[in-house]
Design the sequence.
């Protein structure tokens, strides 16, 4: 049996001592992982409260909007990551997972690694923790899109080239299909045209850079294949519903 290839990309991993937490309810295109040392902090979504207690690890799916309430001072361990070419699509939701046994051991190792300078200690321990959390999810929590082999191959290619525009002829050539036939199949399976999908993918990458780096917006625009900031801002605002500068100010990194 052939399994699809995906990769984990760590955006940030930290363990600050915090006394307050205010998160603007803006969805972001990456996974979030939380583990607090003290009880009293809460995530709220659609009338539901999810406590951030020491005996629970909280996993947040991409594009999940939520509000927060802080409590007493705590070590607030958090990780942001993406799963490139992950073969399932999670709907927006939040999971509260028991932090015991293997989960506790991996969480503790990940936290200890945050004292070291990147890349290797942090990447190995934190990545293992993230992937273990994903492995705890039930099939009912995820949607298997059931893409065919050629569409999976095309998606992986797009994910690996999200620093520039990829035209339909190039993409169809990767999977050895006629461009028109490929576009029809891609839209039928994915629900978007290849160009629309890839544009969203490049904007998602820009979201990570806006929140996890101090790079100027002009440089971020160039890094995801836009000729100038004005064009990038128009496309970003159309897709995300908010301008890049405002997204950077309001979305937060914790």
Sequence:
């Amino acid at each position: 049996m052939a399994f699809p290839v995906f990769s984990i990309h760590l955006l940030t991993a930290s363990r600050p001592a915090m006394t307050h937490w205010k998160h603007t309810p803006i969805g972001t295109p990456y996974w979030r992982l939380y583990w607090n040392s003290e009880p009293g902090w809460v995530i709220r979504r659609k009338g539901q409260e999810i406590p951030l207690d020491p005996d629970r690890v909280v996993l947040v799916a991409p594009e999940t909007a939520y509000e927060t309430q802080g409590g007493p001072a705590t070590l607030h361990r958090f990780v942001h990551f993406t799963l490139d070419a992950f073969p399932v699509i999670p709907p927006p939701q939040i999971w509260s997972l028991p932090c015991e046994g293997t989960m506790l051991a991996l969480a503790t190792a990940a936290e200890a690694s945050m004292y070291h300078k990147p890349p290797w200690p942090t990447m190995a321990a934190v990545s293992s923790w993230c992937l273990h959390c994903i492995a705890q999810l039930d099939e009912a929590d995820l949607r298997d899109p059931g893409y065919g082999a050629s569409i999976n191959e095309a998606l992986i290619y797009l994910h690996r080239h999200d620093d520039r525009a990829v035209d339909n002829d190039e993409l169809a050539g990767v999977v050895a299909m006629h461009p028109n036939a490929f576009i029809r199949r891609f839209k039928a399976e994915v629900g978007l045209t290849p160009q629309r999908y890839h544009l969203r993918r490049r904007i998602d990458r820009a979201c990570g850079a806006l929140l996890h780096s101090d790079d100027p917006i002009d440089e971020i625009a160039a890094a995801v294949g836009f000729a100038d900031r004005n064009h990038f801002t128009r496309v970003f605002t159309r897709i995300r519903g908010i301008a890049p500068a405002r997204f950077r100010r309001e979305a937060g990194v914790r």
Summary: The chain has two domains: 7-141, 149-250. The chain is about 40% helix and 20% strand. The longest strand covers residues 74-84.
